[in-house]
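Pilot study result, target chain (124 residues):
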Amino acid sequence: QVQLVESGGGLVQAGGSLRLSCAASGRTLPNLGMGWFRQAPGQEREFVASISRSGSNTNYADSVKGRWTISRDNAKNTVYLQMNDLKPEDTAVYYCAAASALWTPTSKSSFNYWGQGTQVTVAS
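Predicted structure:
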């Protein structure tokens, strides 16, 4: 079992920055592919970013590419999402997710553990 706890969400003005953190427990992080997803009201949960077990490979949704960075600190069992140049359309609940088996890094179905989510609200 893996437990994931997100933190770092909040209210920010457009153009601002936030850093989300995801602390993992129950299984060591180097064994897990990690990702961030988001879900806005009335919409499907969508892929945002993912990072491989070693941290050497990352993937991003086109909507965040160039603005955001996913990283991981396996020694701290923590994954981060640095979000710069935030826009009102980034408003959503952000979920951390872990994949314990063979995965497609951008596919929601590859991730078998999920956190409770943290709200990010970007004011215009």
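One observation from the pilot: The chain has a mean pLDDT of 95. A full batch analysis is planned for the follow-on phase.
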